[in-house]
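Hello again, I could really use a second opinion on something today. I've dropped the whole record in just underneath, so have a look.
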Amino acid sequence: MSAPPAPGQAKPGPSPSVLAIGGGVVAAAVVAGVLLLGGHEKVGTVDRPALSLVKKAEIEKAADTLAPEEKDKVVAEAKACTAPLASMRLSKTTSQGGGVVRIRAGNYLSPAFNVADTPIDIAVPFPAPYETGKGEIVLEGSAKDVFVQLRPGLKMDQVAGVVRIPVIWDTSKPCGS
């Protein structure tokens, strides 16, 4: 057994530089974890709603709303699970509402949609690489009293010119299974 230290003799602790280095390593690990995992939120909020995934079995049906000049490429990528499709619905919220909008998702621009009495189910490519889990959808056009069904949905009193909507999505099932 070793004798206890004599009064007034303390065991030397780690030096301040060792503590600083250790603290830096811990802080770097926390930042790395947030950067690697933080973009993969799964539940949308009013400030950043979630996009839904078009299931693989529903790609052909969803493709009817894609821009004709990009349809074949987008459908092939979705079927190969390299660039899945997102879905949303547009509808009007009042009898006086409606108008015409297009949806921009990354470099993709949808055909013009007439927001009228019947809700419209729309497919678009995800606005950023699927594995990032976040991006921005842009509504372009002129409409009023429009409901954009995301999770949660958004009611827009006015779409005049450009409306930017930051969005997220769940990256755990890229083929919609």
